[in-house]
Amino acid sequence: MGFLSVFSTRKRVAELTEREVLALAIANEEEDSRIYQSFAEACATEFPASARLFEGMAEEERGHRAMLYDLYRQRFGEHLPPIRREDVSDFLTRRPMWWTKNLKPEQMRAEAALMEIQAANFYDRAAAQSLDTRLREMFLNLAEIERGHEKKAERLEGELLTEDAVEGEKAASHRRFVLTYVQPGLAGLIDGSVSTLAPLFAAAFATKNNWETFLVGLAASIGAGISMGITEAMSDDGKISGRGSPWLRGIACGVMTTVGGLGHALPYLVPNSVPNAFWIATSLAAAIVAVELVAIAWIRTKYMETPFMRSIMQVIVGGALVLAVGILIGSS
């Protein structure tokens, strides 16, 4: 036992009474039912088969909670002792709900399976370590209950997640990925790659100074990233459109805007002392712009089903117009 554990107010499972073990198992069943119910609610709109699966698992947990509570009342009366999962140092832990609520359905199912396996294994270990015969028997019974959950989940999965349902959920999951990450990220990449061309090349041709041009590009990229991120997050909360978390979309949009702008600003870090530094940096920046525009066209083709050549023409025309504006203003 460690030095700090001497002063800990938390108990270990081996130190619990039979009454406390049963009360803790009841609390565990109740908490797991809430987790599964939250999974069901998260899946209800786009993944109905998985939602029904988690509703069935939540109902199973509530049924076992009621069974354990009936057993508790028969032996100890109505009142449950105020013991919680966090009061026991070596009891099961669950991931926080903020972490699990954005999982994909297949990740939720994997998390649920892991929860049941962990619970059964925990009770098995507790039974092996217990010196009290009645507690050992209770731990073994609880382990069997958890294995029953796992078998029920497997049966429900086989009944509800048919091949058509799985394919439908994959399509819905892909759509959510596109709407939450790809579309905002693409909008940011387009804005960062195209809109920053004008101030960057205007500064470049006006000053012929690489460092000053880089500072303009850096400021434009970061400013545009912040602006685009906030705009994306605040313009749609995702509840009506189904486009997912506004902050995830805002981060995707803001980061990609900054990346798109910084890509062609970085060449201007070439020191002014290098011979032909301005033209070296400008040539590199132009090459990077070309790569960025091709990347935008490829993303549009892969995820938005836009024909590649049409997409290439659109981004080249748009980029060329903005580039020409920057060069003309900077050269005037």
Could you provide a short overview of the structure?
With 332 residues, the protein is mainly α.
Walk me through what this model shows:
The chain has 332 residues and is mostly helical. The protein has two domains: 158 residues, Up-down Bundle (Ferritin); 166 residues, no CATH class. Helix 6 runs parallel beside helix 11. The protein is elongated, with a radius of gyration of 29 Å.
Query: How many helices?
Result: 11
Strand count, sense and barrel status of the largest sheet are: none
* Mean pLDDT over the full residue set: 81
Report the radius of gyration as a whole number of Å: 29 Å
Give me the strand/helix succession. HHHHHHHHHHH
Structural class: mainly alpha
Number of domains: 2
Terminal residue distance: 77 Å
| Contiguous runs where pLDDT drops below 50 for at least 5 residues | 1-7
Give the fraction of residues assigned to helices: over 70%
Percentage of residues in DSSP E strands: under 5%
- Total strands: 0
What is the global morphology? Answer: elongated
